[in-house]
Amino acid sequence: KESLIGIRPAELKRADREKLLMATPQIQSDHPLIIETLAKIISPGDQALVQAKKITAWVDKNIEKKPVISFPNALETLTNRRGDCNEQAALLAALGRAAGIPTAVEAGLVYLRGRFYYHAWNAFYLDGWITADATLGQLPADVTHIRLARDEGAGLAALLPVMGSLRIEIVETTR
Fold it and tell me: What is the pTM of this model?
């Protein structure tokens, strides 16, 4: 599990930082409703880590965990107040970006109840990458998350065909 103390600095290139702050058709971080909601979640003067914690907790608490048949869209998720991991990850990314925190959507596998499942979550850049999973209420996300992609839109959708054919063998565990 990642530590929130002494986050290891990792250089984020300017172009990558700009991309991870930019609004997109699915992550509408510049929409007035997203900005208005963010203003109710964070306080002026909150440090970026505090903002990330508040945003993650808010999405966990206020978005009903319910599958929807749609392409993930932050604004629709905020308006409808429901969505699965994909929708929650899009909304978390929009709120993070609106707060000025470079935020990525990640996808891969999560290990729950003895099985691996497709899952989406986020990564905030806070002088180093830290994962957040609003669906499970985790910041940082625990070690059961296996990232296969960091992207949005078509990049994440490309994972779906391989999900049923992945094989994972646990060779060793330690506590």
Answer: 0.87
Helices and strands, number each (H, E), in the chain: 7, 6
Distance CA 62, CA 21 (A): 23
Of 170, 125, 162, 104, nearest in space to 143 by CA: 170
CA 155 and chain centroid, separation: 15
The residue with tokens 């707060």 is 99
Helix (H, G, I), strand (E, B) or coil at 143: coil
SS3 call for 103: strand
If you search the block for the tokens 């409808």, which residue do you land on?
80
DSSP assignment letter at 25: S
CB atoms closer than 10 angstroms to residue 37: 18
CB within 8 A of 147, min separation 6: which ones?
A: 106, 107, 108, 131
- Tens of pLDDT, residue by residue over 44-90, are 999 999 999 999 999 999 999 998 888 889 999 999 999 999 999 99
